[in-house]
Amino acid sequence: MLIAMTISNIGTWMNEVGTTWLMASMPTSDLYIALIQTAITLPFLFLAYPSGTLADLVDRRRMLIWVHVLLFLTAVGLAVCAFYDAITPLLLLLFTFGLGAGNAIMRPAWASSVPDFAPREHLPSAITLNTVSTNVTRAIGPAIGGLIIYQAGTTAIFILNAASFTVLIYALYQWKPVRPNNPSTLPVERFMGAFRTGLRYTRNSRSLKVVLLRSAAFFFFASVSWALLPVIVIRDMGMSSQNYGVSMAVVGIGTFLGAFLLPRCHRLLTRDQIIQLSTVLLSLPILLLAYLPNLYSLAFTLVTLGIAWTFCFSSFMLAAQTSVPNWVRARTISLVMLTFGGSMAFGSFLWGHLSDSYGSSLSMAIAAIGLLSTLVLSKRFTLANDSLDLSATTQWPITIPEDSIEADKGPVMVTIQYHIPADKTDEFLDLMEQMRANRQRNGAYFWQIFHDSVDHQLYSEMYMSESWLDVLRQRQRMTASEQAVRERVLAMHQSDQAPVISIQIAGKA
After folding, report:
1. What values do phi and psi take at 451, rounded to 5?
2. How many Å apart are CA 479 and CA 202, to the nearest integer?
3. DSSP string covering 14-45, please?
4. Partners of 465 in beta bridges
5. What DSSP character marks residue 345?
6. Secondary structure (3-state) at 347
7. Can you tell me the distance from the alpha carbon of 239 to that of 399, in angstroms, rounded to the nearest whole number?
8. What contacts 40, CB < 8 A, 6 or more positions away?
9. What is the pLDDT of residues 276-331, one digit of tens each?
10. How large is the greatest C-alpha to C-alpha distance in the chain, in angstroms?
11. Alpha helices in 359-451, H assignment, sequence order
12. What are the pLDDT digits (tens) for 356-400?
């Protein structure tokens, strides 16, 4: 799978060089060149989360096959138009947007399938390897692309990109993913319900919200490197297509270095410190290149871009992957990709507009200073460095036969009563805040803790779900880490009897 995706990625990066070179060769503004990056990444803003939701509900293998078939057909369309010399700047942007849309639909399903390729203890290495495949091909693809443009023109690039998709389609057809030992007997969620549940999970997961905020800030300002690099290399420095391909290959060298250094950094630094290091490592060379554009500053910037991009993208994806359970993984990963795509798209548009109005140097300088300013976020919004135990648990406070109540009955109100000693009240309430987040992440739309006005040791936890089926799903979604929190709460309960649990359903039973 890795080899097939690497071949496809090479074709994708070759295609990006081809479209960028073709656009830069046309009588267009700097904004049009920067809009290539916008067309590539903007689809993530609109399509990443819906496609991530779909990937959590359907067979991911089939979804990946169909998406790559559509990508193949789009690439063939671009090659045919280029062959007949029918490409205009607008048409080139539309084809680029179409390929970007397919990529945005595919990436959440692919990234959420990575844990199926490797055991959990090797997941950090697997995610890094997947990121390296994407970024190392920045070296191979552009270098080959620049040579092919010089020898045969951009049409050959587009034809080879279409052919690269066939390799991955074949690999996906041959792949036989391992099925879970105890598959759920509950019906699959409906799309809109799953859509809302994923957003509710994210809203109640602070660690995931921190990943989204930090990645949005980093990629927005870092997008200047990809948006204006063609302007600097092709227009300001007057390099040929071969030299542009070589310059992109230098980014790949930085990616190799990043992949080599990242495991060592994980042993010495926290994820947050790796992001901080990458921020400084990228912003200073961009600032240098803005005012001293020469081969040395360009090479330095390209290498550090490869290193910083590998460090940050791998760290953000690892933080997201290790903070969510499997049932919602594609949805949450898609939100990271949505953040990436939106930040890159709007950032590229802004830096291209500023370059047209005030010059590329000022645009890059503003972005570099903005990137450095994101360091202030690390104090309050620190990326979690530990991995939760997200394995599923079948334990539940009471035995509930799945077919005892009609699935669509609801809303459902669950009440649990605890007797808590006065000296443990503060600790209990702190744990209940974690319980609130756990309940709402897993599907409860309302949660509240009540204190009895007469018996001051009596507390009632009450939460509500939309239907009886949602209650059953919450039972299957509970992870070992969430179970550990519940057991700590139960250990504080002091009574001869277990906590009283009441389940009430709206309407006639």
Report:
1. -115, 125
2. 16
3. HHHHHHHHHHHHSS--HHHHHHHHHHHHHHHH
4. 412
5. H
6. helix
7. 71
8. 16, 96, 97, 99, 100, 103, 344
9. 999 999 999 888 888 888 888 888 888 898 888 888 888 888 888 777 887 788 88
10. 86
11. 360-373, 377-380, 425-441
12. 888 888 998 999 999 999 999 888 888 876 665 555 555 555 555
Structure tokens belonging to residue 381: 């919004």
- Closest to 69 (Cα-Cα) out of 107, 102, 100: 102
Q: Name the amino acid, one letter, at 391.
A: S
429-459 burial, b at 16+ Cβ within 10 Å, e below that, comes to eebbebbbbbbbbbbbeebebeeeeeeeebb
> Up-side HSE of residue 186: CA atoms within 13 Å toward CB?
21
E strand or H helix at 500: strand 500-505
CA angle 242, 244, 246 (to 5 degrees): 70
pLDDT tens per residue, range 408-419: 787 889 999 999
- Complete edge-to-edge strand list for the sheet that includes strand 458-465: 446-451, 458-465, 412-419, 500-505
Q: Which two tokens stand for residue 53?
A: 């939701």
Beta carbons of 218 and 279 less than 8 angstroms apart: yes
Cα end-to-end distance, the chain, whole Å: 51
Which residue bears the tokens 């050959």? 156
Q: 492 with 420: CB under 8 angstroms?
A: yes
Number of H helices, E strands in the chain: 17, 4
Structure tokens at 265: 């950094």
What is the C-alpha to C-alpha distance for residues 164 and 224, in angstroms, rounded to an integer?
28
Single-letter amino acid, residue 328: V
Q: Which amino acid is at 406?
A: E
